[in-house]
Design goal:
Blueprint (H helix, E strand, L loop, with lengths): L1 H9 L13 H25 L6 H20 L17 H5 L1 E9 L4 E2 L4 E13 L10 E3 L3 E7 L11 E9 L12 H6 L6 E8 L11 H16 L3 H10 L8 H9 L10 H14 L5 H19 L3 H19 L5 H15 L7 H15 L1 H7 L5 H24 L2 E2 L3 H28 L1 H9 L2 H16 L5 E2 L5 H16 L1 H5 L1 H22 L1 E5 L8 E5 L2 E5 L4 H14 L5 E6 L4 H4 L1 H8 L2 E6 L5 H10 L15 H15 L2 E4 L5 E4 L2 E7 L4 E6 L2 E6 L4 H10 L7 E4 L6 H7 L3 E4 L6 H9 L3 E4 H4 L2 E4 L3 E4 L12
Amino acid sequence: MSWAYILGLLSTAILGLPTSNVLWKDYSLLIVGAIVLGIVAAIAIPRFWRSGPKSGIWLTAGIVAALAIFYFHTRIPQPGASDISQFVTSGKESVQGQVVTVQGKVETMPRLTRSSKGQFWLAVTQLNEVESNGNKGATSRGVTGRLYVTVPLLQATGIYPDQTISVTGVLYKPKPAKNPGAFDFRAYIAKEGVFAGLSGRQVSGIDEQKGVSWGWWLLQQRITRAQVHWLGSPVGQLLSSMVLGNRAVDIPYNIRDQFVQVGLAHALAASGTQTSLILGWIIALTRRFSAKTQLVFGTLALLIFIGLSGMQPSVLRAAIMGFGALIALVTQRKIKPLGSLLLAATILLIFNPLWIWDLGFQLSFLATLGLLVTVPPLMKQFDWLPGVIAALIAVPLAAALWTLPLQLYVFGIVAPYSIIVNILSAPFIGIISLGGFISAIAALIYPIAGSAVAWLLYYPIQLLLGLVQVFGLLPGNQIALGTITIWQLLLLYSFICLSCVIPRVRQRWWLAGLLTITVVLLPFWQNKIEQFQVTVLATDEEQILVIQDQGKVTLLNSGEADTASFTVLPFLQKQGVNQIDWAIALDSQPRLRSGWVSMLESLPVRTFYDSMPRTESRRGDEEAEVTDTKVQEATPSISAMPAAGKAIANALKSQKGNYQEVSRGETLSVGSTTMKIISIDPPIVQLQIKGKSWLILGETKPEIQEQLVKSGNLTKTQVLWWSGEALIPELVESLKPEIAIASSNLVDPEVVKLLVNSKIDFYWTGRDGAIQWTVNGGFETTLDANRDDAALL
């Protein structure tokens, strides 16, 4: 029945991620389908599988699956009538920001974000509007619910759980992922029962607290401070993370990213390794005591570990299985590892069925399953090796085998050196984890003793960091294959399960491996040679275009550093892009070009076209050629441009890429696309993409638009893509576009009226998300937005 319950929860994947937007009737159909499937199985399967489960069991399984779906739906968080998210303004005011002061109780310790801010969860009780909303005036009301709060790092100092504080900032509703495959922040916080966020500016009420209440965070801080005291940063945080888990300790993101990149993310997460060490020490120290005493001490140690590391699915799974092993040990009974794993998963999913879609829970479950069913046959294959070496190879290989398909489905990236890194790092991780636990226990008793023990681990940690850095610098340390489909995922796990269950398949492991690789690589290769897709990425204010042309990739603009790191690179990786064939930098503002540095550090570029002039004299010569238009006038200072261009050229030189400057009037051929540079500043470019004419119009002032119309240099175009600022009617009439695309969070209402009245199809990244165009499919949006443009007016 446990399998029926879990499969029932997995069937909710048909309806997508668990959100409050899915209607009850959709779950009703799924529930009915589970019952019907159980009835069909009860009638049909016993006729063919006479030695299998009886009809009653199949019928009961269908009912259990239906109940699981019903229970899953009832546990999806829903905002109440007084939830603070109900009072977030919509429309134009929501774009400008709603400044409020909220009061509530802090639930978690502040965590450092990638943007160097402090983040914590706040249970709110009071909402006060700082700025009046319309003509109604400022209001104050009691509210309920929780908030995802970010504040400047200095403002987060001194914030602890259970404090009652006031935070002033901008209240907002998180938006869904705007780009294909991007992180869905709205779904992430919705699973926590949170439907609004607060970008805080100022925190008050911290100094009014009379005292600090006890909490697990006090013990976490005591351990972390002791280990950082003599080890320093980031070595101390790394040790604390390997003991308590990365959710309890802030690790610098550069260190965390290096571990993830080489396939050692599990070393920073609290899970089975820590549980095994804890129970091993407890049993060793209490071997002279009775079985009941061992059980009590072991249970107490597991509860303390859960409290210190947090209520994470992976921690709870390891603790439940550890508790089962502890009971079996002290009662001298045998335990079935697979049954224990299934029982642990069932208990956790009854406690919170939404964890079925938690990536940490899924990876922890699959990795443990791999260790249980795959390590024994692998050990037999490596019986010619010493036992310790065979175990070092078999354990990471089994875990990687079972988690790789899910990683491809979610991230689309393979770390080729991960197994080698795991084998080489296993001794260091064992020594550091064991020493870290001794240091943590000592720190709780006497902090200086904990610092002294932690100091002894300095060189092993440095060796581990050096190993990670060396493999992180090797070429091909990450290969983007692109995300696989759900059917590919199911096929891969089917092959893995068959090889574990059927001995004949296991003996022909090379054939199963070949089929597995074919399932992934053949569709990847076929998609590459056939794909032609143009994507306008949804960004805050940058214009970024990606052209995928039968395996060749063209990237136009990078945006700011954060845009390149969190929007452009994740999109390219999930599309299976490992190289940019043509990169074109059109933005003249250094701020909007800063992303090229991180792009070049992550992906090789074969040819880089730079519209930024190296000297002021060259720019003056080009402007002298412009006799009938003033397009090149009214430009910002370019004093910083030569340095930026030099940095890009140096980065390309290390990659053996080609750096070329482009000038006004130049025509480029990038694959099957032709690009003509009409103007450099502001950037104005004409594209011919598969017979369709595009015009890219950068931020252009109305007076310059008038000059463009008078000059007659612009011809009619089919697609107008501009930065969202005001357009004059004469320009639209001159171009007569069929499609208009605005890359902006806010579009001038007068422009919307003009486009609607001219019967021009209008797309807007602030509303529609990323826009993709294919020859056969036409234009498609990432978000299912309301196509009524009147809502913009």
